[in-house]
């Protein structure tokens, strides 16, 4: 036994994980090295603690106190209603446009998820979502960034977080499409970390083969550590980037680098700004932003009883109205502060079915939804909210900005998202004076127009032809 092994063996014994070495003697040297490397990177004690905590039912008193203390979020910029509101939004837009012109904005797309609900066999960004063409999610975002760059004569770096599950294919896809003409040197792919799944009953780390732990991406909260370890926080600082526009891979109608959102964020010197939309019903399965003891936090829909979800404040408005669209703007220095102590973002436990190799070396694929065999661990980026000293919430226009692709069918599916893209296109065309029947699909590339005003102007000048849409 070499000294590395004896050290590893001690740690494994102490944390009841010796089964990881069960097949060590049967492995090739490189497999042995790889297994020891995976074990070396794993915080065995922390995993043990988390598993132990997961076997208690948590602290229902703390959870109940959190919900009782929750108030409607305080600092919210609402959608404009009055002329004064419109003036405020106009001013914020001008401030945001200036930040863009000055080159202070970068986009971060988190694209490391496994997209299991959609059931698409490739990274979700490669999903064809165009109502008339096979335009993918990646292409829509790339074209939005290119169009913003052209409009403001500026550089907007694009940072894409991938994972073991999505990296190689994403890289090949972007190469094959020549980075959609953004220039390879301004698109940064970086990989998030991964964490092993644990057997829910025993806390033992699951293995996917004789030499591999059953790993999965460490959640969108893995962004903070991943940015830092890829050296990107330094790079952003060198490029004088101040604002990181964060969004998820699944919403093709997000307004990337939305000048109004950027403007409010910059005006208020917010460290973390979040776009929210009004929930359609209290029962809607959406996390909501609230104020808890003076801090902004997210309450997950699963934390609320139906009665709590429908609770109203003194103005008769739902307390839990402000649905999280996962569109955020981070102040770069705030991200640096988070990265300096990454343990500030807690690990969350989710019970899921995870395939694994049993003690005889055979693969088992549990599939009982009522009794998941494993716990998976993830960090959530929105846990940064209560850490921030200065947060801001801006209400977005739901039908325009939030039409995600989550499920294979039904709500939040390719059908609803494609229909939204067509509807938005029809609205822009109507504003330009062209009526299109409701059942006719419309697809407007961000390179043709980023909004209704631009489309009107370009149709008038002939730069865009009706026949092309
Ligand atoms: P979701 O919570 O929708 O998860 O991710 P998912 O993995 O994409 O899909 P399901 O739940 O398996 O169906 C929201 C966003 O966070 C990213 C996803 O790529 C998506 O943009 N994400 C999620 C990561 O980048 N890494 C992760 O580890 C998890």
Count of beta strands: 20
Calculate Rg over CA atoms: 24 Å
| Count of discrete alpha- or pi-helical segments spanning 4 or more residues | 15
Structural class comes to alpha/beta
Low-confidence stretches: none
What is the CATH architecture assignment of the largest domain? Alpha-Beta Complex
Distance between the termini: 68 Å
- Whole-number mean pLDDT: 95
Q: How many domain units?
A: 2
Q: What would CATH call the class of the largest domain? A: Alpha Beta
Helix content: 25-40%
Q: Which ligands, by name, code or SMILES, are bound?
A: uridine 5'-triphosphate
Strand order of the largest sheet: 2-20-12-15-11-3-4-5
Q: How is the biggest beta sheet arranged?
A: 8 strands, mixed
Please identify which CATH superfamily of the largest domain we are dealing with. Answer: Spore Coat Polysaccharide Biosynthesis Protein SpsA, Chain A
Shape: globular
Seen as an oligomer or otherwise, the chain set is single chain
The CATH topology annotation of the largest domain reads as: Spore Coat Polysaccharide Biosynthesis Protein SpsA, Chain A
Q: Approximately what portion of the residues adopt beta-strand conformation?
A: 15-25%
